[in-house]
Fold this sequence. Notes:
The chain is α/β, with parallel strands linked by helices. The chain contains 11 helices and 12 strands. The strands form 3 sheets. The chain has an 8-stranded parallel beta barrel, surrounded by 7 helices. Strands 1-2 form a two-stranded antiparallel sheet. Strand 3 (82-84) and strand 4 (87-89) form a beta hairpin. The chain starts with 6 loop residues before the first helix and ends in a 5-residue tail after the last helix. The relative contact order is 0.12. Bound molecules: phosphoenolpyruvate and manganese (II) ion (MN). Phosphoenolpyruvate is lined by residues 101, 127, 131, 183-185, 206, 236, 271. Residues 101, 127, 131, 183-185, 206, 236, 271 line the site of phosphoenolpyruvate.
Amino acid sequence: xxxxxxxxxxxxxxxxxxxxxxxxxxxxxxxxxxxxxxxxxxxxxxxxxxxxxxxxxxxxxxxxxxxxxxxxxxxxxxxxxxxxxxxxxxxxxxxxxxxxxxxxxxxxxxxxxxxxxxxxxxxxxxxxxxxxxxxxxxxxxxxxxxxxxxxxxxxxxxxxxxxxxxxxxxxxxxxxxxxxxxxxxxxxxxxxxxxxxxxxxxxxxxxxxxxxxxxxxxxxxxxxxxxxxxxxxxxxxxxxxxxxxxxxxxxxxxxxxxxxxxxxxxxxxxxxxxxxxxxxxxxxxxxxxxxxxxxxxxxxxxxxxxxxxxxxxxxxxxxxxxxxxxxxxxxxxxxx
Length: 336
Ligand code: PEP
Ligand code: MN
């Protein structure tokens, strides 16, 4: 309460709290009174903050507990293991998802799929619908790209992760994909989150480049509240003042997320660094600090890639990365 809040306004708040079926507890401080609200507030906590903020004499309303529930470790202490076509993510195994940034043609995608599988990848990534910063850049092959990914799955057995950008395309992408990717730019597209929430497919949710870890969890909550518990969170770097790399890898986010949520957490060092030379060291850092998996861009001919060539590893380099991932995973009590 404000330091000078009069007894009538304090009484009014007490009465309101009681009328809501909650219990007020007044802490009679020297300078000001603090009113704690006790009881089961459910998922409407944010609304309660707004409601009590409007009362006369109130200085500030703070939430002590989290706004998210379904993804919270408090309500679900054991880590969730998400299974996609027999691949388990969130357990002892560090799952490496790899493939090109964009599906460009059948040969490029099939070759990459075979090579990443040989090296040890457990899932195939590749974009058919591409969120490009410029409308003049390659926008992806659309449904033709999805068909190529399905063919690559047939050839290799690798489950397919691919991005969906629009609510109108969720059914189409879900027909071909095993995991629907929500890109960084769409992390707070709430209609899209609800739509993938009811798609029945697992979701790889990427953190927005200007979003807090808390916001990422609220977005996961959107998907889960539609009945879809199969959400994999992905740190992919954030925008900071630093411009020596494309983004700044928020390595802290990995242990923080592992502490706050039971959902699996993966790191995408390709987009977080934007430079193939830094992909391996940052990938290893991610595994060292508890990531359940990695997303790595791989291209047979990065110089001629239609998107993200600079950050794409050649297959031989990817193989090297995977070998080191195995070593680091072992050092932290895991496997790959
Ligand atoms: C991608 O995975 O190719 C991509 C576009 O990622 P992000 O949404 O993280 O930029
Ligand atoms: Mn990319």
